[in-house]
Write a structure and sequence with these properties.
By secondary structure, the protein is α/β, with parallel strands linked by helices. The protein has two domains: 77 residues, membrane protein fhac (Ubiquitin-like (UB roll), Roll); 141 residues, 3-Layer(aba) Sandwich (Rossmann fold). The chain has a nine-stranded mixed beta sheet with strand order 6-5-4-7-8-9-10-11-12. The longest helix has 19 residues.
């Protein structure tokens, strides 16, 4: 019993030493906007360093021993662009944060709030997380429509993965794709470039490459017969149905 008591007493003394000794103090930035001397952040390209630092604002000025590592990791995961994160102590008074960022797979045109407001382009990753484009960075990605920030994450995940399957299947044909609408995952709508502009193709939920190749093969004849047509239904195999703008002039 005395041995147990002695162990507890020793632990309390050590803990008190770690909490109260100035050499373990996690120092804040010297000036607003500067880096914290004891905080090292690795692996970021697009995530906001300032927002990552703000996660540790409650810990500045206290012992690094008191930093709740698991809680801070959860806080980091809530920051935009952060996919994975780890936090480790570096004794006597530092922390190292290692970040793995999300990788965007497409631009997303989010639904506009009002008629006078233009569509806003954002980014989306393969898990359905919506990301704000970082400043002064260019991405060469396809454009996706038909989902937004108010949709459930799982819904966005299913739709963007349907898109990725679509992009993979059509391969080089994607060079003529302006946008794909996945509001209905069972009926993808592709905005397709043609010589005189664009048309909208209703593709259903499968055999995308075959339907597009069939459309490309027959489009010169279709354009001659229906020069004003702007929308086509390709959902039925080997059939192309004019949906709108079918006047022949």
């Amino acid at each position: 019993m005395s041995a147990v008591f002695g162990g507890v007493f020793t632990f309390q003394r050590v803990e008190q030493y770690l909490i109260e000794t100035p050499r373990f103090r996690f120092e804040p930035p010297a000036e607003y906007g500067e880096d914290a001397p004891g905080l090292r952040i690795e692996g970021i390209s697009h995530a906001s360093k300032g927002r990552l630092m703000q996660v540790f604002a409650p810990d500045f000025g206290r012992s690094v021993y008191l930093v709740p590592l698991a809680e801070r990791r959860r806080n980091l995961l809530a920051v935009s662009w952060v996919k994975e994160a780890s936090v480790s102590r570096i004794w006597p008074h530092g922390l190292v944060v290692r970040i793995s960022e999300r990788e965007p797979v497409a631009f997303l045109t989010t639904v506009r709030a009002g008629r006078r407001q233009p569509f806003r382009y954002r980014l989306i990753d393969a898990d359905g997380f919506i990301l704000d484009p970082p400043p002064r960075v260019s991405f060469h990605l396809p454009v996706v429509a038909g989902m937004g920030v108010n949709d459930e994450l799982e819904s966005r995940r299913q739709r963007i993965r349907k898109c990725l399957k679509f992009f993979k299947e059509i391969g080089p044909l994607g060079a003529k794709l302006s946008e794909v609408d996945v509001e209905d995952p069972g009926n993808l709508k592709a905005t397709w470039q043609v010589d005189e502009g664009v048309v909208v193709l209703m593709l259903g939920g499968a055999d995308f490459a075959g339907k597009l190749k069939n459309f490309e093969k027959h489009y010169p004849e279709i354009r001659t017969r229906f020069p004003q047509a702007v929308m086509f239904d390709l959902r039925i195999e080997d059939r192309i149905t004019v949906v709108g703008g079918a006047g022949n002039g």
